[in-house]
Design a protein that fits this description.
homodimer; 7-stranded antiparallel β-sheet; about 10% helix; mainly beta; 17 strands; 3-stranded antiparallel β-sheet
Chain lengths: ~220, ~220
C-alpha cells in the first residue's frame, strides 16, 4: 500500500541528516494524489487550551502554565492535565490532593507565559496573580483569570516523563462579565489557544456542534 | 472572605429554580471589584481540539468525533482521549489495543460533526472518510484529515461515565501541503477548535510561547 521514498531535503553533503520518509499511496483524495509525510512519534495535538495550574506548595500559591489538559469525564465531571514529574507544581498536587485550572484571557499572555518560564522552586510566583480560595481550601484560584476550576485529585497516572493528573471538578468560578446564561462565554473570555509553540486567539465560529452534521445525509 | 447571595434571575414565580449563588469578595481586581459566579461542577474546558477517533470495530473502520483529548506525556510521547464507555469506538479500542486521532480541517466540519451524531453500531461510518493504515495495522487513518496520529493503547482509566484512553504515539502522518519544516503548520491545517457546543476557527497569533513571558520582569 505504501512506498517509502527517502528524500534529500537538507544539506546535500549530508543526505542522511534531514531525510524524510515520504509516504505515497495509490489512493486518490479528491482529484489529487494523497501526499503525506511521516514525522515520527511526537507529543502532538492540533490545538490546546492555555491554562494556569494552581497548587499550593508548602503553603504558598503557585501557578504553572500548561496546555496539555482536557476533560476526562462527564459524570462525575473530571479534567486532566499532564505535568512533568520534576515540576514544583507536582509536589503541591501530591501534597494537597487538589489543584486548580485557571483560564487566562489574551490580555494576560505575558503573565501567563512567565509562569511557564520560571519555576516556583526558584522564583516566588504567588504574586503574579491574586489568589482566592473556594470550596477546596488548598487549591489557589487566580482572580484575574475569568474561569477558575477547582479540582480534587482523583488519580495520577505515570506515563513516563509526565504524570497525568485527573481531578474531579468540585466547583467552577466565572467572572460575571464573561458569563452568558450562567455559563462561560468563549468570546467574552477571550481565551488563549496553544499550538505549535505559540499562543493564538479564538477565531470565527464555523458551525454548531451536534447540528452541522445533519447536512451530511442531505449531501 | 466570601458572601453567598442568592439572586433571582429567572422566573419570579419560582425563585428557587434559576437561583445563582453570587460570590462577592472584598478583593479588588484592577479598578473593579471581583465579581464571580459559581456554576457548579461541570466537564468544562476553555478550548479543545476537534478530532476524529479512528478504530476498527469488528474489522471495519469507524470514526467518532471527540474533543476531550490532549497530550499526556512527552517521553514517550502519549496522547489521551475520553470516550463514553457505551460508545462503539470503545469496543474497537479494547479489541485492537490501538486507535488513531485524526485532525480534520474546517472544510470537513459537516463530515466531522456527522461522526458525532450517529453511532457505528447503527450506521456504517467506514465510508465517511477514506481509510489507510500505517505502522499499526489496526488503527484506521482518515486520508482527508491533514494530520493522523497512530496510537498504541497504553492504559485506559475508568473515570465514571467515561474511559480515558491513553495511547503511545507510534507515528504521525501529515499532508505534505500542511507541513512547514517537517511539522504540522497550524495555519495550513486550518483545524477545528471546539468550545461551548460550537466549532471555531483558529484566530490570530497573540505571541510566542516560552518567550512572551520575558517581558514580565521588565514591567
Amino acid at each position: 500500500m505504501f512506498r517509502a521514498i527517502p528524500l534529500f531535503n537538507g544539506d546535500p553533503s549530508n543526505p542522511g541528516k534531514d531525510t524524510l520518509k515520504l509516504l505515497l499511496t495509490k489512493h486518490h483524495f479528491g482529484e489529487t494524489k494523497m501526499d503525506k509525510i511521516t514525522i515520527g512519534p511526537m507529543p502532538y495535538m492540533s490545538v490546546m487550551p492555555t491554562l494556569l495550574v494552581g497548587a499550593n506548595v508548602k503553603g504558598k500559591a503557585n501557578y504553572m502554565t500548561a496546555a496539555w489538559a482536557t476533560v476526562a469525564c462527564l459524570a462525575p465531571p473530571m479534567v486532566c492535565v499532564a505535568i512533568n514529574k520534576t515540576r514544583f507544581t507536582a509536589k503541591g498536587i501530591e501534597e494537597n490532593k487538589s489543584f486548580s485550572l485557571n483560564v487566562p484571557s489574551a490580555k494576560h499572555v505575558v503573565e501567563t507565559d512567565h509562569c511557564g518560564l520560571v519555576s516556583g522552586a526558584h522564583d516566588d510566583k504567588s504574586k503574579v496573580f491574586k489568589s482566592f480560595y473556594g470550596k477546596l481550601k488548598t487549591a489557589p484560584l487566580a482572580e484575574e483569570c475569568p474561569v477558575n476550576i477547582e479540582c480534587k485529585l482523583f488519580k495520577s497516572v505515570d506515563c513516563g516523563s509526565h504524570l497525568l493528573y485527573i481531578g474531579e471538578v468540585i466547583e467552577i468560578h466565572v467572572d460575571k462579565a464573561c458569563a452568558t446564561d450562567g455559563k462561560p462565554d468563549t468570546e467574552k473570555l477571550d481565551p488563549i489557544m496553544y499550538a505549535q509553540a505559540a499562543y493564538w486567539k479564538v477565531g470565527k465560529p464555523i458551525d454548531k456542534a451536534f447540528s452541522a452534521g445533519k447536512k451530511y445525509l442531505k449531501k
